[in-house]
Amino acid sequence: MLHQRRLTTNDVDELINLPSAAPVSLDDDQRDALARRFRSVAVMSRRRLDAWSVERAGVRDGGFAWSARTSRRAIGHGALRRWRDEPTLSVTAVVREEIDELLVRAATGYARAGSLPCWLADQSRVALGVVTAEAVRWVSDALEVLETLPVAWVVPNSDAFYDIAGAQTSLRARRDVIVATDEGRILLRFRGGQPGKSAGPGLRSDLVIDALSDPAGTVARRIIGLWPDAGLALAVDGTLEDARMGARDLVRTAVVQARRDQKIAA
Amino acid sequence: MTTAILDAATVVATLRGDRSLRPLTDRHSPAGLRAQLEDGLFPLVSDLDPRAPLVIRPRSFRDERLDASVGVGLLRGLLVHEVLRLFVTGVPLDDPYTDGLDAWQSHNDSTELRAAFHALDENDRARLATDVRAHSATLVQRLGPVSPLWRPRTALNIIQRLAGGRVMCRDVLDVVVGSGATQHASLALIDVTTAALTTSHERLMRYHALMESLRTQVVPLRIAMLSTATGMVWRRDVDTEMLQRAVDDVLDVVDRARKGV
User: Fold this and answer.
1) What pLDDT, on a 0 to 100 scale, did the predictor assign at position B68?
2) Which one of A63, A165, B97, B204 is least enclosed by Cβ atoms within 10 Å?
3) Smallest CA–CA separation between A208 and chain B, in Å?
4) Cβ of residue A194 closer than 8 Å to a chain B Cβ
């Protein structure tokens, strides 16, 4: 079920506390069934699927490139963690600290080519200023909701990944914040722009990939997408039906991509 | 009432004002304003296809029809806004023109704007550089230092879909300081223009305040408009009367757009 609210702390808190059905898990049979479905879809090169590819109905963008806009989330995660440790610091200060640490990583050779630290190290002082401004905005938008949220939240160390053996397929779920409750975890994801018609399927994809990446296969109680630009929040319950729909959307996206690849190859 | 700030007080200082006099944060009015907008829009756009919405932008509130071509004026505005972002973020500025240009080129993907910049001859580039430096000097002097503790953020996008998606209101706020999560109102908006202030800028201030109210469900405390052309600053406390007028402005713009006026 898709819930829609305004993006305020109270509304997000209400979405978190909405009653939910008993927690569900994906078992080995369900994982095997999904793997079989993916294996049956022709693949020409390694396939990477996420909520964005589902929302775009399998249309691939040009290759990924770091920019002030694409780097703000990665920097923002680190900055949010720093702010959690020391809430008296300003947002600008925690963003600067995070960028400085990434630059140190590049300078000491602990970053691989093409990574965010290496890209940052190549930027001018002014371009780093633009990166800082973008990340400050991302973190500030997040804190407008999170700062007064009356529940404990953490920033996960990484996105959720799940590799499907024998299908050359990797799935990735983006999640920005995890709220732990007695009944299970709730995922929060901050998005730019406004939610489109495919926002629900996108959230369901993140939900199912997150469950697949969980060793016990536990489906999160709920996933909440937050669109600060539009002032909207959408939430999908962590039911088995929603997880199934998410999995179906991912397989459908793989099929669409495969057909398109075959047409191009022909 | 709009107050023109003519003395040496900086924009940020006047926006923050006396903390003890700030009203409680108004979280109730935005829902009523949205309902009024929806009610007013329904008869105007009920026959519109939501797949091709009517888009309202800040420029919809300007009196004059602007020249759509990309010239020195537009590039100057873009570069001054880059300088604004850097200044507010606390990046030390060496030369506002080269810094603004570096910042713009580091993220601008518009081939049209890039082509327009490269098409400038030496005289136009020199004029652009002089303009940007002069406007930036006014900007830095009039804006004043922005403490990072006030949580300043720049270039905030706002998208509000109204009337079942038949009307889409878009806006960009140059600078926002403060938080909507506090008990007393602290959210302040700053808009910077490289043009001289006219009556259309009053409408623009109202539009910004309305859009931020609808986005955050919190009525901002104040809004200021700074002209880097003249150094003139207009400041206004955001109140219900101002937001009601903003609703009327939006309805008027939609009505005129539908009639093709």
Assistant:
1) 54
2) A63
3) 29
4) yes
**What is the nearest CA distance from A215 to chain B, expressed in angstroms?**
37
Residue A146 lies in a domain: no
What is this model's ipTM? 0.92
Split at pLDDT 50, 70, 90, the class of A182 is confident
DSSP β-bridge partners for residue B227? B193
Domain count, chain A: 2
Task: Name the closest residue on chain A to residue B94, using Cα atoms.
Answer: A126
Find the helix packing angle between B199-216 and B240-259, rounded to 10°. 110
- Does residue A193 belong to the interface with chain B, where contact is any CB pair within 8 Å? yes
**pLDDT value, residue B66:** 55
| pLDDT number for residue B246 | 97
Of B82, B148, B154, the CB nearest to A90: B148
pTM: 0.94
The answer on A207 and A180 residing in a single domain is yes
B142, B193 in Cβ contact below 8 A?
no
Chain A (68-127) residues lying within 8 Å, Cβ to Cβ, of chain B: 68-69, 90-93, 123-127
| pLDDT for the residue A264 | 84
Residue B61's Cβ-side half-sphere holds a number of Cα atoms within 13 Å equal to 24
Candidates A111, B103, B104, B85; CA nearest to A119 is A111
A130–B88: do the CB atoms touch at under 8 Å? no
Last residue of a domain, one of A100, A118, A139: A139
